Amino acid sequence: MHHHIRTGQSLMELLLGIAVGAVFVIGAATVIVPALRINSQAGNIQEQAQLGQELSNNVQAWAQGSWNGVLALATGTANRYYLDTATSPFVAVGTSTTGEAVSTCGGAGSSTQQACFTYDRYFYLSDVYRDANGNATSTASGNYYDPSTKLVTVVVAGTGASSTQPMDFYSYITRNADNVFAQTSWIGGSGQTTSTNFVGTDYAAASSVIVNASGSIELYYGGGSCVL
Prior knowledge:
It is built from two helices and ten strands. It is an alpha+beta fold.
């Protein structure tokens, strides 16, 4: 009995198997590579969002403690600032081109060391106006300037090899924590010569005024008067 060795056929099968495997590998690569790219982009967007939210929160905290510092800053997109949080209280630092360089490695919560990215992070202020209904607007014409409110725009963008589309974050800061001393009645009369920390009905002195029984006052000059 003769045995035939099928060497040639086995080699062809092996080559065919390698070719089929290569097709699957190439096909898998065309799916995996874009998926990895999308995952990397999603990680960058998440990092940008976290950096933007962090700076927005810090600006809010800084404004509550130093409204005079807010008013001292120039407004407009050309006036970029970043916040120095290494000091207490925070300090707004001006810069002409870029803001705060922030380096990150890997996505948020990543347990592995991935490529590092550098972001520019800064903010600028815009004046706020109020229309006849008290609504906030950026339009100055025909509206009233509100010195107690500013619009903050935080910008975060990748730089260099990690360049990404800038991401903007908008929020309002206001001097709403200040107490308002509103005195509506002066019926207590004159004689209040010292400072006070509560709203009363007294005043220091007055001339040419009439205090009504309701506590309101009238400016009196000549033959007429003006009720306040």
